[in-house]
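Customer ticket, subject: "Can you confirm the structure for Catechol 1,2-dioxygenase?"

Message body: Hello, I'm evaluating your service for our small team and ran a test protein. I'd like someone to confirm that this is what the system normally returns, since I don't have a reference to compare against.
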Amino acid sequence: MTKTSTTNPRVLGAYEGFVKHLKNFLDEQQFNHEEYTNFVKWADRLGRSGEIPLFLDVFVETHVLESKYKDSPGTEPSLLGPYYEENSPVLEKSPFVMPQRDDEPGDKLVFTGNVSSTNGPLAHTKVEWWQDDADGLYSNYDSPAPDFNLRGQFVTDENGDFEVHSIVPIPYQIPTDGPTGEFTFAAGYHAYRPAHIHIKFEHEGHETLITQVFFEGDKWLETDVAGGVRESLLTKLEDKGDHKEASLNFVMRAE
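Agent reply: Thanks for trying us out. I re-ran your input and got the following:
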């Protein structure tokens, strides 16, 4: 049976736009054949290593988000990143305590926030939270911690408020032992991301918001290798003696 094709205008338009800009790029750069061959070999290594998602998360995703949301109302999105994991534990009781090991290393963190809509107040929003540990590692990936350590999901109250108890995340270095690291250093970049918390918000009738929270004073804010920092996502980390506190409010976009 002959397979017939049906044109997808979005796919065709994106491809034609890509080719148009690629031709301009090649005219500008004037690669010789050796340089092109080196690129093909590097891209092959990138694919074979399984690092395409990592490379795109670090060096491309932020430009996609800026192009789409730069002048949009509501909280600015930031990178989903390569360490998101579905089906994290459901936390039922506020304050929501992230799953942790006994004597989890790191400074204790109390984080408070509010979720609203561009249309006004918003109640009972689903929130997912994930972060690195005091060694800069993520559970389910490179950390020896149990799966879903420092990961959880919960629902805000009727006013959109929530409180999370966790630990303060630390800056960490993206993987550098493969093709992504090869490119990073060849381009003269460092490989560090500032300390951050990943948060994902979902509510019916609203666009899913995936963003991050950063802390004032972090040495890597200005040179985040992934370019994920947004000034509106910065908050102050206040020392309360036996723990630290931070707060930030979030606004979702109505569909």
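A couple of notes from the result: The two ends are 42 Å apart (CA to CA). The chain has a mean pLDDT of 94. Feel free to reply with more questions.
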